[in-house]
Amino acid sequence: MKTQFVILMITVILMQMLVQTEGGILGKLWEGFKSIVGKRGLNDRDQLDDLFDSDLSDADIKLLKEMFK
């Protein structure tokens, strides 16, 4: 009975260590993914939002339309 209890306690401790380590690893992977994609990539944005920017001139819009034909 004592042996089973010791094995159970060691298993519980190892499982807790695994869960804490996995959370750290998954957290770091998620941070890396977010830094690669960036803020705009994770937002639900239309790709044509820049066309409505007031800083774009008519020539810029014409060039963009030619590029995407």
Task: Give an overview in words.
The chain is mainly α and about 70 residues long. It has one domain (about 1-69). It has two helices and no strands. It has helices at about 1-40, 60-65. The longest helix is centred in the first third of the chain and has 41 residues, at about 1-40. It is rod-shaped, with a radius of gyration of 26 Å.
Which terms would index this structure?
mainly alpha; 2 helices; 74% helix; 69 residues
SSE map:
Elements: H1 2-42, H2 58-67
Along the chain, the helix and strand elements come as HH
Outline: rod-shaped
Enumerate the spans where pLDDT stays under 50 for 5 or more consecutive residues.
none
Report the mean per-residue pLDDT as an integer.
75
Summarize the structure in short.
By secondary structure, the protein is mostly helical.
